[in-house]
Amino acid sequence: MRPDTQYRWATVKHFRLVIALINYGSVLHASSALNISQPTASKLLNELEEAIGAQLFNRNRRGVTPTELGRAFAERGKLVLNQIDSVSELIASLKKGYEGKVIIGLIQTSSSHLISLAIEEVLSSDSAIQIKVIEGGSESIINKLVSAEVDLIMGRRSDIPHHFVLHQEILFNENAFIVANRNHPLRLRKQVTAEELLSYPWILPPLETSLRLKLEDFFYNEKLRPPLPRVETSSFFTTSCLLEKTEMLGVLPGSALSTYNYPDKINILSGLKPIAIESIGIMRPKEAHLSPASEIFIKSFRNVLEKLSIDFHHNDDVI
Questions:
Q1: Are 239 and 250 in contact, with CB atoms under 8 Å apart?
Q2: N- to C-terminal Cα distance for the chain?
Q3: CA Rg, the chain, in Å?
Q4: What is the DSSP string of 212-266?
Q5: Short-list 265, 224, 230, 236, CA closest to 249
Q6: The pTM is what?
Q7: What pLDDT, in 10s, does the model give residues 151-195?
Q8: Which contacts of 58-64 are long-range, i.e. CB under 8 A and separated by 24 or more positions?
Q9: Partners of 169 in the beta sheet?
């Protein structure tokens, strides 16, 4: 790269053009999508390749195909454009009187409902913050974090692998409990054994869930075969309704029991150890500082955990 092009070799237009060329595969279609003329698009691409000193696309009769460098440039270009968009959104929010915006990537867990309680606390405070929640699988959400499309991720530790450019912190440990309705024959027992649990029908979450797998481990550790479900569902509402009206047994996360305050309808059976199911944490880029809006959201989330007396992780367990 020549010295005179060092600080002006690429503009936003160049980044948008390269991404459009990869998406559409031709200068004609890319220029149309960007609302510029085809000669202008060709000129921008030639300028960029000349400044870089390498070819980003191979031209052929059918259109253009990116070189390895072209694909790498497009990926980095997405990061740049996302950062620019974030700054633009922040400026727009501040002009409207907001105190910033936080975009949360959510990987669904048994305690995902706590997000809504944290949001409720933020909204009830004096801070004027915009909050956006994007749900998805671990791979897609982590990609969005790396590309700066979300500010932080909330999810279970096992779903968020160690990543050399990402920082992970555990917020709390989720436990599950074996439960029954308040009139259940086992409810008044001071010491319930694992063998006795097998004498009753069960309502259980699907086999592929961590909650179901951890419950089965509980029975295997007692040298017992796990119960087969009479009813299988991932719905907390369905589970709680059936538990209230039948003599079925179930297993529910502690966060759900704390949140919905069910002691008058559903009770934890005595004498059985809590079942550790997952650690919930946040993930963010290592080198990036959290925005004030993100910090306020996390503080509100911690407040929710303390109010519900959930196993809050006081020591910052950083992965």
A1: yes
A2: 39
A3: 26
A4: HHHHHHHHHHTT-PPPPPSEE---HHHHHHHHHHSS-EEEEEHHHHHHHT-TTTE
A5: 230
A6: 0.61
A7: 889 887 766 665 666 788 888 888 999 999 988 999 888 889 999
A8: 62/25, 62/26, 63/24, 63/25, 63/26, 63/27, 63/28, 63/29, 64/21, 64/25, 64/26, 64/27
A9: 282, 318
